[in-house]
Design brief:
- This is Sulfur-oxidizing protein SoxZ.
- Pfam families: SoxZ.
- InterPro entries: Ig-like_fold, Ig_E-set, SoxZ, SoxZ_dom.
- This protein has a single domain, classed as Immunoglobulin-like (Sandwich).
- It is elongated.
- By secondary structure, the protein is mainly β.
- It contains no helices and eight strands.
- Strands 2-8-7-4-5 form a five-stranded mixed beta sheet, with no helix packed on it. A three-stranded antiparallel beta sheet has the order 1-3-6, with no helix packed on it.
Length: 108
């Protein structure tokens, strides 16, 4: 399992725009580099990132070999109600990881 770091507010006011930052430790091997034996290293990249807020997709991204190792993604969403944000990464070789973070939303 890769190490994921997620930074977001634990609380927000209803209607407030919040910033969410997510980083996951992953080598992102492109499949274009030769190894010590001269053969190409097998491709191993993350291909998809999705964030769901109480089950509804609020942000998603398709990732490609040009993305650096340990991809960092930052985005904004509107705090609508208390609940859970679910962060999912999918990649080559069956890689899949999901992290969840709670958020408490107060009335404006």
């Amino acid at each position: 399992m890769a190490r994921a770091l997620i930074h977001m507010p634990a609380t927000a006011r209803k209607g407030e725009v919040i910033e969410i930052r997510a980083l996951i430790g992953h080598p992102m091997e492109t499949g274009y580099r030769p190894g010590a034996d001269g053969k190409l290293l097998p491709r191993d990249i993350l291909t998809r990132f999705t964030c769901r807020y109480n089950g509804e997709v609020v942000f998603s991204a398709e990732l490609h070999p040009a993305v650096s190792a340990n991809p960092y993604i930052a985005f904004h969403t509107v705090a609508t109600e208390s609940g859970t944000l679910e962060f999912s990464w999918q990649g080559d070789s069956g890689f899949a990881q999901t992290e969840k973070m709670p958020i408490a939303v107060d009335a404006p």
